C-alpha cells in the first residue's frame, strides 16, 4: 500500500496506510547504505580481492572500518571470505551472486553522481 495524507473535519492532517515496519527502500539502505559498503561491493565486482589491496583501493577508509563492513557484508551473504594458504596468511574477499545483484543500481548511483558533478553540484 502507498501511504497517503488526508485532512479530518477540523483540517488536521492524518496519515493513512503508514509503514509499521521498514519499507523495502529502508531495508535496502540498511544493508548497503553504510559508509564504504557500496564502494566495497563495487571493488569486488570483477573478482576476488585481497584485504590489503581492497584497503588500498578505498582511499580514506580505515582498515578497521573496512573490516567492520566486510563482516557485515559476509553476514548478509553479499560476499565470501577465503583464507589463503600463504605465508604470511592472507585473506581475500569475493562478491556473491546475491551481492552482484547490487552492482546494477550502484552503477546507476555512480552515473547519477557523475551527472551531478558535471552540472557543478558537489
TrEMBL record:
Keywords: DNA-binding, Transcription, Transcription regulation
SUPFAM superfamilies xrefs: Winged helix' DNA-binding domain
Single GO term (MF): DNA binding
GO BP annotation list: regulation of DNA-templated transcription
Protein name from the UniProt record: DNA-binding transcriptional regulator, HxlR family
Any Pfam family: HxlR
Database matches in PROSITE patterns: HTH_HXLR
InterPro entries: ArsR-like_HTH, HTH_HxlR, WH-like_DNA-bd_sf, WH_DNA-bd_sf
Repressor recorded as keyword: no
All copies of domain HTH hxlR-type, residue ranges: 23-121
Domain of life: Bacteria
Gene3D superfamilies (alphabetical): Winged helix-like DNA-binding domain superfamily/Winged helix DNA-binding domain
